[in-house]
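The records we work with from here on pair a chain with its fold. The integers have meaning only within a learned vocabulary of local backbone shapes. A complete example follows; check for yourself that the lines match position by position.

:::
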Amino acid sequence: RRAARLPPALDAAAAAPEPLPKRRVARRLVIPGAPASGKGSQSALLAAEYGLVHLSTGDMLRAAVKGGTELGAKAKAFMDAGELVPDALVINMLLARVAEPDCAARGWLLDGFPRTKAQADAMEAAGVVPDAVLQLDVPEPDLLDRVVARRLDPQTGAIYHVKYDPPPAGDVAARVVQRGDDTEEKARVRLAFYEKNNKALLEKYAGIVTRLDGAKPKPDVFSAIRAAIDAVPAATTTPPASTSSRTAARVLIMGAPGSGKGTQCAIIVEKFGLRHLSTGDLLRAAVKAGSPLGVQAKEFMEKGALVPDELVIGLIKEQLAEPGVAGTGWLLDGFPRTDRQAEAMSEADSVPERVVVVDVPDEDIVKRIVGRRSDPETGRIYRVDFDPPQDDEVKARLVQRADDKEENVRPRLETYEKYTALLEDKYKDVLKKVDGTGPKNAVFERVKDALQVQEKKIKRMSINEFVERAEEVYESSVRNNADVDWSGQAGLDKLTLGQSTWGDVQDRPLLAAGDFAALLLFAYIGRASHNENTNLISALETAAPFLLGWFVAAPKLSAYTAMATESWKDVASFLLRAWAVSILLGLGVRSLTTSRVPPTPFIVISLVMTLALLGAWRALYFKVRGPQMQEGRKGTVFEYFEMLSTLLKRW
């Protein structure tokens, strides 16, 4: 859009690929900046001046939306709903794009990304490192003025400013609109998120950052940027040496029952983001989904019979062929177990880069398994030697599963050793054995070392291949609704992690229900301490002013946004802000309804108890759910029930 409104000379330069200006050299540049800091306008000028490839993650998706592709339609739905594209996808798209010959020859300019240190770390891990970072600093009042006064022409997509760059009189002036994101309230939230992350981002790039005054007139800012760029050495376009190492993206992990393989799988998935493919989990998921393979497998599972090789192979092939799996990498657990299964993987062109065997002596395995005890009520597993239950009642009801008896353990070990010997020979060139004894973190360090493989030269892809690959990966992540970090970038200056509306409550029903219960419990305790009626109606009557105060004020104070549960610090800060306003509002409502001011002891006790109960609930919620969870994406009563069960068990 901005490029369409460039001065004629620059517009011609942007349109004509040849001849290139003599002063162009290869560069790798990042221009961060707050919303409305002018980074987009300056990026367009710089791309034309230096012939750099202008990379905007938002533009990549908007182009798909404008083109009406299937990917664009799905992206539009997420952008309209305020949901963001996953970091992993954005970075994969960038990695593929910067590997294109035009980026290697001309250099690239990354506009508005990365926005967080985590994104910068992921870029660095993928080999995308800038030569210079040009930070545009603009005072907050100026930024707010720029944002609030922006107007969009819905027909052309052009952006105007009612003071400094008004739309032409006539039809254009009549049809321009203010976008929903350009209100002062939403702009402040976006700026708060930017300020929160920008300091860490600039520290990450310390040594290559140049800070520039972005409040000056546009030509002056451009001159300052150009001087900063001319002082930067040209980018090196030599690809990484083929002897560098990276973490394997296709991993097969093997280990006897009780070897700790499952624990290591969980850590690998958490640390490296690989897709965990367990035949047992996949079979159960296929049955639950009612897929053709699932229907066939269900017949065998209901009879207690082993699912035939052909069905298991078909299921694994189906999963490995998923574009999302190919894009993120995979971790196979419990498959293959036979030569036929291994051959099927080869036929599907899904050969592991690394096979890790978690090796534990048989006697240690037997000791581990025989010492396991299960709580039939909660399903929790204890170890009688070093992890026994502390509660005598729990200890009394523990049972030993039939599979965990020594006479059943040894035959399972023999079976495992048979198929392991066969697979060790087949995968001997990529196989690493690690010592599985000792603390789990120590074992993981050995596993991590074993996962390192020699880096291969990046295979360059055409533009068409890149677009095809990006669409497949994106569609797969949407279709599978995978548990990913939805903190990437979509839409122009679009950032909804901190938007605060009452609609946020319906997106986080479980968090809201817990807050409701905490305030209701406060009322119940208060009535009980005064020997008053404690039935539900009476408790609701007492809690009503506080519930009204909370659910009127807290959502508008961002208490139900993803930022409110992004870290322990955020949990505390957002709660304190919402609590201080809401409970005082509740006390005010109570004064009006009872026609008397509450006594000071009552006010103090109300403040302390509500803070303690709401704080305990939100701390428990964050401990179990973790950061940036979006209940609106889960959406089923059964999943909420499962979450509540988990909370009760951990309590």
